[in-house]
Amino acid sequence: MVFEQSCRQCAVRGTALCAALPDADLLGLAGHGTHRRLARGETLVRAGDMAMPCANIQRGLMKICQTNPAGQEVIVGLLWPGDFVGAPFLGPAEAGHDIVALTPVTLCQFPARVMERVLTDNPAMEHALLARTMAELARARARLGSLARATALARVAGFLVETAQRSGAGDGETIAAIDLPLSRGEMADLLGLTIETVSRQMSKLKQAGVIGLPGGRRVVIQDPDALAEAAEDLI
Amino acid sequence: MVFEQSCRQCAVRGTALCAALPDADLLGLAGHGTHRRLARGETLVRAGDMAMPCANIQRGLMKICQTNPAGQEVIVGLLWPGDFVGAPFLGPAEAGHDIVALTPVTLCQFPARVMERVLTDNPAMEHALLARTMAELARARARLGSLARATALARVAGFLVETAQRSGAGDGETIAAIDLPLSRGEMADLLGLTIETVSRQMSKLKQAGVIGLPGGRRVVIQDPDALAEAAEDLI
DNA sequence: CGAATGGTTGAGACTCCTCAATTTGCGTGG
DNA sequence: CCACGCAAATTGAGGAGTCTCAACCATTCG
User: Which residues make up the CATH 1.10.10.10 domain(s) of chain A?
Assistant: First the structure.
C-alpha cells in the first residue's frame, strides 16, 4: 500500500501531521505525494520562487537561509525530520528564503493545492499544522532573544546543546557524542559569527574540558552542565 | 448590535481575521468577546502562564518580550493593530513570553475554546490565521537574518524604516514624521543594543541630515533613500 | 606527490559595551 | 512663573569582544 511507504514514514518524532489523518484521507493524500531525495547541497526552494511546495521531511537536515545585500548567507532556521515545509493558503507570495539540504534528505512532497484541500477536509490536521506553526514561531522568537545579546561562546554552546537534543544524543546529563551536521562556515552563518570565531570558541570549550573534538565533525559533550552554563553567557 | 462595536473594529489594516467570517458567526463570536483596555505598561500575558488568551489588537502597540538569565529584557517582536495574539490548538503549553502594552491598547479578547470552535466552524478563518502565522514566522526569520550581522546603525535605521511603514506615515519616498512608540531603552532591547549606542546612532543620522529630531519622541525622516541605504549597512 | 578544501591559530583594527558626567524634558510644588 | 527633582536622552573616554587579514595544519582527492 502506497502510504505505508510514504506517509507512515512522515510520522517521525511523533509530531507529524499525518498522524491526525484518518486512513482514508491518508491514502488519498499519499496518492498525490511524491517521494523525493535531495543530495547534500541541493535546493528545494529558492528565494523569489512564486510556487512554494509543501513537504514533510523524513530524513536528513535542511537549512532555511537568505542572502543579505552584501552577499553573505545567513541561516535563519534548520528543518529536522518531521518538520513541515511550505505555506498553504498564503496565496501567490514570493518565497523569502532558500531551503537547501545540508545532508542527504528524503521527503514527501505534495502540490500546495492538494495539501490545501486535505487540510480543508481534515480540520484536525489543520489544527495540528497551526499549532505547530505557532510553536515554530515561538522558537524563532526565542532564537531572536538569544542572538540579540549572547556572546560568541554562548551561541556556539547553545547550538551544541540544541543539536544534541534534536539529534537525540544523550539525555543532556551524561556524556554524549554527536556528529555535527554543519561545517564551521555553516555554523557561522547560523550563529551570526565568522568561521574563525566559531573555531576559537570550539577550541576554548575543548581546552576547558567541556567538549572533546576527536576529529571530523564529531563532538563529545564531556560536561553537559558546563556546556549549558556556557550557553547562558551574555554580553 | 454588539459586533458593530467589537469585531468590525478588529478589521484593521484589511488583514483582520474576522473579515473571513460570515455575519452570523461574527455575531456569535462577538457574543463571547470581551472588550479590554490596557494602560501603557500593563501586561496581557506573562511568561509561564498556562492559559494563553486569544485577542485581536484594535488600537495601540504591544511588545513580546522575554527576560534572559542575566535579567535583561529582550523584545522579540511587536504587535500592531490588526495583529492576533494567542495560540489556539496548541494545548496547555506554557507561554514563553510576556506580552505588554507599549501604548494604551484596546483589544477584543476571546476565550481560547471559543476561538477554537469558531475556527473549526469557519475553515476560511482558520486558513487566514494559518497564512498569517506563516507570514509572521517569515518575518521573524527575516529579523533573525538582519540581527545576525547588521551593524548598530543598520539596526536603528531599519527600525525607523519599519516603524514608518507600519504606522502608515508617508510612502517611503517623501519626508515623513513619526512618533516613536518606544523609548531609547525599549529600542535597545528590541535591537540588541544599549541605550547609549541607540542614542549615538540616532545622533549620527541627525548629523548626516538623514533624520530630524525636533524633540520628544518625534522623528522626521528627511532622506528616506539614505535611511533605507543605512539600513543595509553590514558588518 | 600536489592541489584543494576545511579547520586552526595569531596580530591588529574596529565596533560596541561599560562607566561616568552632562544635558534635556517634564511634572510637581512653591 | 520659576525652582526643583526625577527620568530620559546625549555625549565622552576607555576597554572588551569580534572581525579582518594572514599564515599554517589536516584531510581528501586527483
Answer: 150-230
